[in-house]
Design a protein that fits this description.
alpha+beta; Multidrug-efflux Transporter 1 Regulator Bmrr, Chain A; 9-stranded antiparallel beta sheet; 3-stranded antiparallel beta sheet; 27% strand; elongated
Length: 246
């Protein structure tokens, strides 16, 4: 029989770990002295300890190892772990690409993140104005056209085409409410999407510039119009649905 210290030296498993394995039933000593409580292991258990260490080195948890020890399917577990590692590799490569893009194009776009935008239903009205000042006035005016119960729901603005030099700004106000459209409004559904998103308060020029730089730096392709969602305390969420983004 091998005392716990000798068994630890042979297997490379610490005494603390061996005691923990005993507590959770993963690797119990072959013998425990009734008087001293000293633990002893058999030579056959060396291979058992080495297998535990090898599985741990593959990133397999002690809970999963215990399942294998008690008759679980090792090949099935390894296949599952392999699939998990492949997903991790893909995610790491995607993050690496984003870091490289930031290093190459400047880190100003770091505030832009890919978020999963849920599907949203709303009431909308669309117009074309000559300037952003007119767009702001129009967005304010639309609120007065709504029934009183709808005036305080969350709202946003879709910017479909913006060409101030040509005095053509195509914008659409959206009130996020699942209600019957009042006169002049129509029901709109914004589909679920992956969206490049940035939050800002006041400094919209920086936000738009950062978003545009991020689109170029990461090779994201816009798949819809930019959306400003007006939130509490003058915070605005600027987002645009994109393709080629994980």
């Amino acid at each position: 029989m091998l005392r716990i210290g000798e068994f630890s030296r042979l297997t490379g498993v610490s005494i603390k770990a061996l005691r923990h394995y005993d507590d959770i039933g993963l690797l119990r000593p072959a013998l425990v002295d009734d008087d001293t409580s000293y633990r002893s292991y058999s030579a056959a258990q060396v291979a058992h300890a080495q297998r535990i260490a090898a599985l741990k080195d593959l990133g397999i948890s002690l809970r999963e190892i215990a399942e294998i020890v008690h008759g679980g399917d090792l090949c099935s577990l390894l296949r599952s772990k392999r699939n998990e590692l492949v997903r991790d590799i893909h995610a790491s490569r995607e993050r690496l690409g984003r870091i490289d893009a930031l290093l190459e194009n400047g880190a100003a776009s770091i505030d832009v993140a890919i978020r999963r935008a849920p599907a949203r239903v709303g009431l909308s009205m669309r117009t074309i104005v000559a300037s952003y000042a007119e767009a702001d006035e129009w967005l304010t005016e639309t609120k007065a056209r709504l029934p009183e119960p709808l005036r305080n729901v969350e709202r946003g603005a879709l910017w479909h085409a913006c060409d101030p030099a040509a005095r053509r700004i195509d914008c659409e106000v959206v009130y996020f409410a699942a209600a019957e459209p009042p006169r002049g409004f129509q029901r709109v559904v914004l589909p679920e999407s992956s969206a490049a998103t940035i939050l800002y308060s006041g400094d919209w020029i920086h936000a738009y510039a950062a978003l545009d730089r991020a689109l170029i730096a990461h090779g994201w392709t816009m798949s819809g119009s930019k959306l400003e969602r007006f939130m509490a305390d003058d915070v605005v969420e600027l987002s645009v649905p994109v393709r080629n983004a994980s």
